[in-house]
């Protein structure tokens, strides 16, 4: 089917317009606010949120790799790249919001990248600690693996919760413009202070415990959704009986 000038004009007129960046509510956290300032000039350019997600993924992969090499300065460089990757993670979402380019595929790509980088982060720390403490009672690589698997479970369950009740159900706790994930900005400091070993042990304990908490929350959300579904079905049945 060919399109004439009239149909082309109609297509342009009916194409949804991106929102005015000034009218989009401001983010609650400082890094997201800075990210919005940096990506605002990209609105209307060929750069898409998925491009920024890919950039975040590449930086995070490089950071996890340098962490795993066991060299102090390369590990410090890796920690800096992980912190930068954590910041760039905010840019794709902010560009999507102010340009009207949000999509389910892009959101899934972003979540998958987050999970992948976080898992590799802990594995990289595990290899670094194993290089410097080969006599640990438990192999450091296994400790990093446990933390990484727990994080992967957390991301999966949070994605499932979000699919059932929306983003509000997985919103991170924030205080004073900071979120729980902002602890990654301190990773270079941890590296410089030779704190990777206690950091890994804390992650190996804390991540599984938080995974259990998220699993309990996931079960609670499932029950609530099932209860609401049954209640809606019963109400529809009663309305049908009343109509008859």
Molecular structure report:
With about 240 residues, this protein is an all-alpha fold. It is about 75% helix and about 0% strand. A two-stranded antiparallel ribbon has the order 1-2. The longest helix has about 50 residues, at about 195-244. The protein is flat, with a radius of gyration of 23 Å.
Outline the secondary-structure elements.
Elements: H1 5-14, H2 30-39, H3 49-68, H4 72-99, H5 104-132, H6 140-165, E1 174-175, E2 178-179, H7 187-192, H8 196-243
Antiparallel strand pairs: 1-2
Helix pairs in contact: 2-4, 3-4, 3-5, 4-5, 5-6, 5-8, 6-8
Pfam family, one: CDP-OH_P_transf
Transmembrane segments: 64-88, 108-130, 142-161, 183-216
Organism: Caballeronia grimmiae
Summarize the structure.
InterPro entries: CDP-OH_P_trans, CDP-OH_PTrfase_TM_dom, CDP_ALCOHOL_P_TRANSF_CS. Pfam families: CDP-OH_P_transf. This protein has 244 residues and is mainly alpha-helical.
Main sheet makeup: 2 strands, antiparallel
**What is the average of the pLDDT values?**
82
How many E-type strands? 2
State the CATH architecture: Up-down Bundle
Report the β-strand fraction as a percent range: under 5%
Shape: flat
Reading side by side through the largest sheet, how are the strands ordered? 1-2
Oligomer: single chain
CATH class: Mainly Alpha
The CATH superfamily turns out to be CDP-alcohol phosphotransferase transmembrane (TM) domain
Order of helices and strands: HHHHHHEEHH
Cα Rg: 23 Å
Instruction: Quickly give the structural class.
Output: mainly alpha
Structurally, the number of domains stands at 1
Helical content band = over 70%
Organism: Caballeronia grimmiae
Pfam family, one: CDP-OH_P_transf
Keywords: Membrane, Transferase, Transmembrane, Transmembrane helix
Family: Belongs to the CDP-alcohol phosphatidyltransferase class-I family.
């Amino acid at each position: 089917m060919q399109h004439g000038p009239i149909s082309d004009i109609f297509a342009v007129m009916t194409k949804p317009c991106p929102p005015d960046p000034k009218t989009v509510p401001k983010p609650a956290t400082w890094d997201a606010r800075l990210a919005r300032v940096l990506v605002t000039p990209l609105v209307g350019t060929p750069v898409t949120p998925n491009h920024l997600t890919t950039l975040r993924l590449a930086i995070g992969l490089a950071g996890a790799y340098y962490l795993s090499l066991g060299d102090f300065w390369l590990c410090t460089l890796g920690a800096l790249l992980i912190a930068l990757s954590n910041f760039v993670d905010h840019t794709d979402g902010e560009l999507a919001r102010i340009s009207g380019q949000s999509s389910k595929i892009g959101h899934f790509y972003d979540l998958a990248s987050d999970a992948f980088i976080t898992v590799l982060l802990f594995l990289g720390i595990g290899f670094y600690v194993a290089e410097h403490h080969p006599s640990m009672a438990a192999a450091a690589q296994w400790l990093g693996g446990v933390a990484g698997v727990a994080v992967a479970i957390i991301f999966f369950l949070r994605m499932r919760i979000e699919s059932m009740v929306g983003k509000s159900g997985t919103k991170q706790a924030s205080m004073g413009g900071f979120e729980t994930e902002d602890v990654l900005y301190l990773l270079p400091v941890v590296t410089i202070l030779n704190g990777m070993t206690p950091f890994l042990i804390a992650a190996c304990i804390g991540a599984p415990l938080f995974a259990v908490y998220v699993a309990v929350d996931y079960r609670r959300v499932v029950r609530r959704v099932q209860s609401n579904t049954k209640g809606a079905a019963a109400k529809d049945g009663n309305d049908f009986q009343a109509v008859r």
